[in-house]
Design a protein that fits this description.
Elements lengths: L7 H23 L6 H28 L5 H12 L3 H12 L2 H26 L14 H14 L6 H12 L1 H15 L9 H25 L3 H11 L6 H8 L4 H22 L1
Amino acid sequence: AQCKIVDEKGAQQFTNLILYIITPSVIITSFQVTYSRLLVFNMLIAAFISILTHILGALLSKLVFKKENDERKRILTYSTVFFNAGFFALPLLRAIFGDIAVMYGSIFVALFSLISWTYGISLMETRNNKINYKVVINPGMISIIIALMIFFFEIKIPSFFQSSLTTLSKVHSPLAMIIIGIQFFTFRKNFSIKDRSIWKTVLIRDLLIPLLILPVVYFLTKDKTLFFSCVLTSAAPTAANAVLFATKFERDVNLAVQAVMLTTIMVLLTVPIIM
């Protein structure tokens, strides 16, 4: 961005490439494992932890941000509830733990999509309380459905197609990090650390929620891959959707930018502490 190689339009195109092509490839590839009841049970645990993570975010936000005005409360709540499972957690899971971990992380991505486009929309939109459930059918959800069908019916993808998916999957991590970097550069002039409520968001989103999730996962499973997948994903920073939704629904975009940037920067400290 600094060298004028990529501008905001290019960043949006890269984002679309990840959302519509690369992330679905990562998800489908990760489900190319042999069916077993243990994996199914683990997937159910991942789904439960994902839902619990969102619920904890909503409950803690209601408690901590109750004195904020309505406009700020909506942005701060969204920023606390919704985390960057796709762009942040999946690349890390793939790099550290491999495809099985990505499979568990994909469950978080699917439920994030469902909850974001229902509860998330209701947080941001007040003029029309009707939720358009058609938007739930998005590339992430479609790829999860395809991946689950492949897993449960033990369908073997043709080798030439599998090779293409694997090649696409390998660019997921670096391209996601490039996009996050472009976002930082684009919004750098709006960055500030003076808002105390943003620090509350950082504390809850990056530290408190994953620390609350940790003993729950530990109690539910002794599978190390599942354990670390759930804890690491629940420790992800605020989703970039906070900025996108704030822009779309004419909310406080600057506050959303603060939340995304600061929670993302602080995971450099909080994730190692939690892990």
